[in-house]
Amino acid sequence: MYFFADFVLDTDRAELRRVDGSATRLRPKTLELFKLLVQNSHRVLGKEELMEAIWPGIHVGEDSLFQCIREIRVALGDARREMVQVISGRGYLFALDVTTEQAASGTAEPRQQETKPDRKSRRGLSLVAVAASVLSVMALIGFALHGNSLFAPSRVVVVLQSIVDTDASPEGVALARDIASELVKGFSRIDGIHLIVREGETVPALHGGAALDLRYELKRDPLNWILQARLIDTANQEIQAVAETSASEADRPRLIQRLAAGIGYPLGLRLSELQEPEERAATPSAVAIRQAVASINQTTRERFGTARAILEQNLAEDPDNVELQIALAGLHLRGMQMNWYDPAQSAVAEQDAAALLKGALASRPRSLPVLDAYCRFLTVTNQFTESLVVCARALTVNPWDGTALYNLGLTQLQLGRFDDALASFLEAERYDTPEVSRWTWLLGAGWANLLLGRNEEAATFLQRSIAITAGSGRPYLLLAAAYQRLGRAREAREALAKAMEMRPGSTARNVALPTRNASNTFLAGSNAIIHTLMEIGLPSGTPR
Asked: How far apart are CA 11 and CA 13, in angstroms?
């Protein structure tokens, strides 16, 4: 372990902890980079040196390094970049004094520093020291007022009990074992919980903390395997959540992932709610949001206006309502994507959506709906570095979140990493949660395959997406291009006509995604698709 300021970097647990007990889980590569910076504190490490150390023998772009650096700064709260500094033209420097666990206890000599921190670094250190002192004083006051429960573990303890297999056949026993392994893998990726795996034992309530038993039962009917789960508070035996899912025996290649994700996703949602400061009661805004979403899903400009009016009126009456904030931000994004705003209106809508989502995230930083909405916003507005971080953060709250995987895939797509994007879309398709977003990762898989020149596979995924929902014109546009490349001209024209019906006014100039920050590889592939569509009859949009 490494100690610096009011932090502990625990490499065994892959997390960064503060003195108040809060912890941030780190991805493996981020942990490796963090450890290297900490071990070389006050020494400048060049980009090439870091990339060779973290990705030896593998060619990766600098965006991989930038993503890890950003995650480290987010974990440290280093918004001013005073702890992890950029030394222009040279590399990165970790500007805090570091000791090992042994040195922290006073039994070892502090290590000699190779250079002295500059004035900016010393200012950062002094600010951190002041913050640590304030936290210490607050902790002492809290202890005097509330007793030693202040220092109890802040993370929720989740105990995975063994799966009860009512089928009891050799096949059922093997399936139960594989599902348990998949669940352990998934829940261990959730930030903010302490996972314990036990068989048939009840965990006593923890003083000052929360402990939850997670119990499962696997059943079989003639056609399906059924998995049921309950999340039980060990303190009072109250059931905090119930989940049930089923998967067909015919879907054998994805059976384990589908069953695990089917109960993992809703339970992960509930765990994130339990980690928020207080439970939220249902509000009248829920009705307004349902009405707005119903209008949005009709995809007409008139209903779009109705939905916007509903949300804006309710938000004016309840300006701090997070659900309304993310619903209106989502509506703005839909209007931008469907070309229902002119350029000036689109710029204003983007600013409004950004302000709404930043406010929502500040209010509820662990909320999956908020993280998903912000992840999507950053992806749609081509803020790719930020979207990689936020989408990855959403997956640390709920690793079965297909919505975050879809937006992560879209970011990878526009960065020209088509194979990575396809892998993200297919992972979401294996989990198939949440069900309401199912059509999106099928769209993404079709899009990636089309860019990779796999037109038959593209058409299959796009047909499946449209069969679930025809709520967007883009699947039809991509399907038209796939059909044309496969020599199916009549079907290509029909698909394009359907897209134009849903997105009137579409031209070669406005159907593509924004080009800002997109890679040349993606732009070339996207332009090729547009040229294919123009062969079928998509208007050029060029003034005559």
From this structure: 5
Q: Which of 272, 263, 276, 181 has its CA nearest to residue 214?
A: 263
Helix (H, G, I), strand (E, B) or coil at 125: helix
What pLDDT is attached to residue 80? 75
Distance separating alpha carbons of residues 231 and 190, to the nearest angstrom: 16
Q: Tell me the β-bridge partners of 246.
A: 226
pLDDT digits (tens, 9 = 90+) for 71-90: 898 888 887 788 998 887 78
- In angstroms, the CA 139 to CA 119 distance is 30
According to DSSP, residue 33 is labeled H
**How many other CB atoms sit within 10 Å of the CB of residue 140?**
11
| Sequence-ordered list of residues with C-beta below 8 angstroms from that of 467, at least 6 positions apart, any chain | none
Closest C-alpha among 442, 404, 154 to residue 269: 404
- Count how many residues are written for the chain: 544
Using CB atoms within 10 A of its CB, is residue 184 exposed (0-12), middle (13-18) or buried (19+)?
middle
- pTM as predicted: 0.67
Residue 278: the pLDDT is: 53
List phi, psi (to 5°) of 136.
-65, -45
Instruction: Give every CB contact of residue 307 below 8 A, 6+ residues apart in sequence.
Output: 291, 292, 293, 295, 296, 331
Residue type, 375: C
Among the listed residues 370, 385, 368, 432, the one whose alpha carbon sits nearest the alpha carbon of residue 406: 432
- Collapsing DSSP to helix, strand or coil, 311 comes out as helix
Contact 329, 313 (CB under 8 A): no
- The secondary structure element, H or E, covering residue 505 is none
- Residue 98 and residue 4 in contact, taking contact as beta carbons nearer than 8 Å: yes
Output 521-525 pairs: Cβ under 8 A, ≥24 positions apart: 521/416, 521/418, 522/413, 522/414, 522/415, 522/416, 522/451, 525/418, 525/451
Per-residue pLDDT at 43: 86
Residue 160's DSSP bridge partners are: 197, 214
pLDDT computed for residue 283 by the predictor? 52
The DSSP secondary-structure symbol of 109 reads: P
Strands, E assignment, 234-287: 239-248
The residue-averaged pLDDT of 121-132 equals: 39
Span 329-364, pLDDT tens digits: 888 888 887 777 888 888 888 999 999 999 888 888
Choice between 62 and 509, residue whose per-residue pLDDT is larger: 509
Separation of alpha carbons 372 and 369, rounded Å: 5
Report the pLDDT averaged over residues 126-146. 37
